């Protein structure tokens, strides 16, 4: 379980939010929404341990993520604004590197199956520089199929995706929740997840 207690975020001389409290249980998705500049990405970076809050604490299964460090990272996958794709590598090579770094299963059959499910069959050996922005996002999102983490923290995962790809990712999220996973995400789109519990937090 992920717990946030009395969290405060300050950027420069501006307080983005304060006194934030929530928890995310197995099978739950937390949709963080709000206008640009309200602190959505800052919140997600705090939940990942990439940024420190001005006040408050973030706990994973009752322990501070600061003290858990690498043990927490092994339980969590973060997907940020940037896809993290190397232009000179192929789709298959990019996915293999990402999965290996995350400690997932990088067997080639599994990599190819993941790319196929994300609608990239036939493009596995193309360099990323010739792929569209949406296809690059699909390559990056394919690692969710291969990294056995319980908590997914996703910042605008639907950016640059067409309607078909959005539906695929929503189904992937639904399966993760059905299996007891947890998701925290930001998106300006409505979230249509057939499984699990969806809760929302609005940042002003």
Structure description:
It contains 7 helices and 9 strands; from the N terminus they run βββαββααβαααβαββ. The chain is an alpha/beta fold. The strands form 2 sheets. The protein has a 5-stranded parallel beta sheet with strand order 6-7-8-3-9, with helices on both faces. It has a 4-stranded antiparallel beta sheet with strand order 2-1-4-5. Strand 4 and strand 5 form a beta hairpin. Helix 4 crosses helix 5 (108-117). The protein is globular. The model has no long low-confidence stretch (mean pLDDT 92).
**Which value, in Å, is the CA radius of gyration?**
17 Å
Major beta sheet summary: 5 strands, parallel
Strand content: 25-35%
H/E topology pattern: EEEHEEHHEHHHEHEE
Distance between the termini: 26 Å
Q: Strands of the largest sheet, in order across it?
A: 6-7-8-3-9
Portion in helices: 25-40%
Strand runs, count: 9
Give unreliable regions as ranges.
none
Structural category: alpha/beta
Number of helical elements: 7
Average per-residue pLDDT, rounded, comes to: 92
Overall spatial form? globular
Features:
204 residues, alpha/beta, 7 helices, 31% helix
Question: What can be said about this structure in brief?
Answer:
The chain has helices spanning 40-48, 65-68, 70-73, 91-102, 108-117, 133-141, 163-178; strands at 2-11, 14-24, 28-33, 55-60, 63-64, 76-79, 151-155, 182-186, 197-202.
